[in-house]
Amino acid sequence: MAHNVFADRRTRFLDAMEDGVAVFKSWPVHVRNGDVDHPYRTNSDLFLLTGFDEPETMAVLVKRGADRKYVLFVRPRDPEMETWVGKRAGTEGAIRDFGADEAYDSALFFDRLPGLLTNQPRLYLEFGLDVAFEGRVSLAIEALKGEARKGLCGPWQIIDPRSILWDMRVVKSAHDVQVIEDACAITVAAFRAAMQAATPGMNEGELAAVVEFEFRRRGAHRVAFETICASGANAATLHYIRNDATLGDGDLVLIDAGAERNMMSADISRTFPTNGRFTPLQRRVYEWVLKAQEAAIAAVKPGTTYAKVHEAGLKVLVEGLVDLGALKGKPRSLIETGAYRPYFMHRIGHWLGSDVHDVGPYFVDGASIPLRAGMVITIEPGLYFADAPATPKALRGIGIRIEDDVLVTDKGRRVLTEALPKTVDDIEALMADRGAWWRTVQPVTVPAGKKAKKSAKPEKAGKAKKKSS
Ligand SMILES: [Mn+2]
Predict the structure, then answer these.
(1) 72, 163, 370, 431: least CB-packed within 10 angstroms?
(2) How far apart are CA 75 and CA 113, in angstroms?
(3) Which residues surround ligand 1, an ion (CB under 5 A)?
(4) What is the pLDDT of residues 311-335, one digit of tens each?
(5) Residue range 94-133, pLDDT digits in tens
(6) Could you give the strand order of the β-sheet that contains 268-273, starting from the edge strand earlier in sequence?
(7) How much of the chain exceeds pLDDT 70, in percent?
(8) Given 214, 267, 358, 404, which residue is catalytic?
(9) Confidence bin at 446 (pLDDT 50/70/90)
(10) How far is the CA of 351 from the centre of ligand 1 (A)?
């Protein structure tokens, strides 16, 4: 069933492309240090069209009228390497499990490329990503043109397939939405845990680890992005990932995190008091951000624009800044002059999907694009008061962002992350039994009985050995 999803996407892509050849390449493995690599994650476009997540992969789609072909170039089976780093699909697996019409060893890609490109009118290739690879491909095309007297020619046009894929990806299928909802459910559970685990004196990194612990045991394959866990004034750094300060009593902590599952992301932010109770001033600031978020979410519906959603949130934030004494003047002119920017310096949100900041246009010909059912957008207003001389004294060290993931529906919107508390009262209620998470944490993904039996065997064998020696 799962593979039909990828076959469907290939069909949609092939329907949209003109006659020619499309080549997609996996990302390279990146060295971290010495012989340690960064965790591997392949190119989202390649994955969405193939479901194949191994490195050193090229996917080729060929179209000539109704004639279509799907070729995968993959790492060959290698028993020794597989012993060290895990199973490979190999060429047989690429055909049997991933639906390729033909499959070859990836080392043969440049041998086979001229044959694939010969007399094709155009090549679809993502460029600007791997210039060495793209350079070799263009040399292969040039070499074919040198064979013109033999009747061979390479494609005259190179088109970036993202011209098709961005449109395909920005409107989610029912299946895409379901996978995003899985990632959202995991992320909601992790944030609940963090709220119930937080206590002053903890380290930001420890709290971030609670979030990521919940991600993994609930089925996330990785984080969608580095977890941000920023207490006090650290929250004024939008993408703070040092996560090494101590949570101060009376401080707020801002967590912005998302699980990735089956190559789809969630992205949530919540800000809450480390000790479970907002101060009156924190509550005031928080409720302005929440009001702005609610206004922006309420603006989400088909036919409206991204810009209008942004403006709906911005208007409330600026009213808040005036109410809080951070700005003086009429909200309208403060928006026109951009006077609010020291306290709110980003946009209201972004597309969400396989990439956390998902692909897809926001503007076409300078005009903000209309929202369509199936789009998923994050709504994440914030107010940030850095610990700086220009910031009103009382507000310094307060940084608040509230972020939810919102699906545009036929009639309006559905907040995919609405199960997570976000009013002051609901957060305080959830945190009332401070540190409860540490006392109640139980395994959720491992069926305890089965696993315990297995691991008991070698233990017994070990004991027996000890006795006999
Ligand atoms: Mn976000």
Answers:
(1) 163
(2) 17
(3) 267, 378
(4) 999 999 999 999 999 999 999 999 9
(5) 999 999 999 999 999 999 999 999 999 999 999 999 999 9
(6) 228-231, 252-257, 268-273
(7) 94
(8) 267
(9) low
(10) 9
pLDDT computed for residue 461 by the predictor: 39
pLDDT at 86 > cutoff 60:
yes
Active-site residue identified among 346, 396, 414, 434: 346
Whose structure tokens read 């972004």?
A: 350
Task: Name the catalytic one among 182, 214, 355, 403.
Answer: 403
Token duo for residue 49: 């069209």
Can 401 be counted among the known catalytic residues?
yes
Active-site residue, selected from the candidate residues 401, 404, 405, 413: 401
Chain centroid to CA 311: 25
Residue 459 has a pLDDT of 41
Helix axes 306-323, 280-299, angle to 10 degrees: 160
- Domains of the chain, earliest start first: 2-167 (3.40.350.10), 171-440 (3.90.230.10)
**In this structure, what token pair is assigned to residue 233?**
């004034």
In 181-227 the beta strands, taken as DSSP E runs, fall at: 222-223
Q: Exactly one of 70, 124, 286, 384 is catalytic; name it.
A: 384
Task: Give first-to-last CA distance, the chain, whole Å.
Answer: 54
CB count within 10 Å of CB 202 equals 18
- pTM of structure: 0.92
Q: Is 403 a catalytic residue?
A: yes
Whether 404 sits among the annotated catalytic residues: the reply is: no
Q: Is 380 a catalytic residue?
A: yes
